[in-house]
Structure formats: C-alpha cells, structure tokens
Design goal:
Chain lengths: 118, 111
C-alpha cells in the first residue's frame, strides 16, 4: 500500500524557518518525481515545488522561489521541504504528493500544518 | 500565475448529473492534455478522480467522466450520490516556471 506521511509542521514566527519531511512507503520512491502542494485555511490547492527522481532537478512556484528548497534522500525514502524567511501568507496545510501520469497526483499524504504568526 | 477558473458551487439532487467547468488559457488547459480532477472531503487529502483529461484511475467510479474543449475542461458526475458531496479541484500542466496550476475549487452540494 502506498503511503506518504508528512511531518515537521508547526507554529513559527515570521522570518523563521521550518523543515518538512514526507516519508514514503509501498512503492519504489526513487523512481518517482515528487511534489509539495499547499492549502491555506479555507482556500484552494496551490502547487509549491517539484523534484525529479534523483534529486538533480527542481522547480518552484514564484511565491516561494529563493526561500524554499525541495530535496530528497532516496536511501531513506524521504522527501523534504526546507522553508526559510517564512511569511504569514505561507500559513497552510502542506501536502506531499507523488507525480503520476500527465502531471497528476495519484497519491497524497495527509498534510502537515504550518502556521506563521507572531 | 492565475488559477484556473471554476464555479464556486454547484448542486444537484440524487440521481441527477452535474458538470463542473474549469477554464484556463492556451498556455495550460488549451494546449495540453494534462488536466486532472480531484475530490476533497472536509479534513481529508485530495483524491485523484480523472487524469489526462478523461482517464479514470483504477477504483474510481465510472459515474465520473472528464472532457475538454478548447481552453475549458469539464468534470461530469452522473447518478449523483450523497457521498459525492465534496470540493472538486481541476489542475493543469502549464508551460511556465509554475509547472502546475489548480482551479479555485467547486463545492458540490447534493440536495
């Protein structure tokens, strides 16, 4: 069974940092491109970042470029999102998701909440 | 990048059919067959319902179908059931640094 389990969210002050993790199991993690998608409270889904299967290529939404870093450890079957210079508008539930056919997300984690507030 | 445009809400009675539209541009929906649809119940993670415009993942009911015409994609749910009540989001690949753009979401109410 495919499972994606996020962790690392929490309350952080504006300007602070946080590192999210996503532990994958039930599939060959190293064969798949992975994404982070976020959802602000009561709002819609927003794409954040993508990393290719071996970690050599990344993409970022303009709103997080230069502040967030996506990475992965295929030996540990884990995806990461390093977030710096956090802003109130980064407050959201952060999901990791596996990229499947046609840029679709066939599997999602349950999300980890990030709250940026003083 | 602006989100794809979806109606904020739609409703239907059990057994009826409804259609949710998703309007983009020639840079996303209009130029690629990489449109997906997701169902999200409150407090839950999204679930993939349609990929590549009209394909259903294994396990998804054939009451769900997708199509595309020009810059607008559509999700049709036939034979509405109470369990279909949820938020629905479309997404598309986009030829820019943004990579994937989502619609604002549509709340489906089953009357």
């Amino acid at each position: 069974e495919v499972q994606l389990v996020e962790s690392g969210g929490g309350l952080v002050q504006p300007g602070g940092s946080l590192r999210l993790s996503c532990a994958a199991s039930g599939f060959t993690f190293s064969s798949y491109w992975m994404h982070w998608v976020r959802q602000a409270p009561g709002k819609g889904l927003v794409w954040v970042s993508r990393i290719n299967s071996d970690g050599s290529f990344t993409n970022y939404a303009d709103s997080v470029k230069g502040r967030f870093t996506i990475s992965r450890d295929n030996a540990k079957n884990t995806l990461y999102l390093e977030m710096k210079s956090l802003r109130a508008e980064d407050t959201a539930l952060y999901f990791c998701a596996r990229e499947d056919l046609g840029y679709s997300y066939g599997f999602w984690g349950q999300g980890t909440p990030v709250t940026v507030s003083s | 990048q602006s989100a794809l445009t979806q109606p904020a809400s739609v409703s239907g009675s059990p057994g009826q059919s409804i259609t949710i539209s998703c309007t983009g541009t020639s840079s996303d929906v209009g130029d690629y067959y990489y449109v997906s649809w997701y169902q999200q119940h409150p407090g839950k993670a999204p679930k993939l319902m349609i990929y590549e415009v009209s394909n259903r993942p294994s396990g998804v009911s054939n009451r769900f179908s997708g199509s595309k015409s020009g810059n607008t994609a559509s999700l049709t749910i036939s034979g509405l059931q109470a369990e279909d009540e949820a938020d629905y989001y479309c997404s598309s690949y986009i030829s820019s640094s943004t990579l994937v753009v989502f619609g604002g979401g549509t709340k489906l109410t089953v009357l």
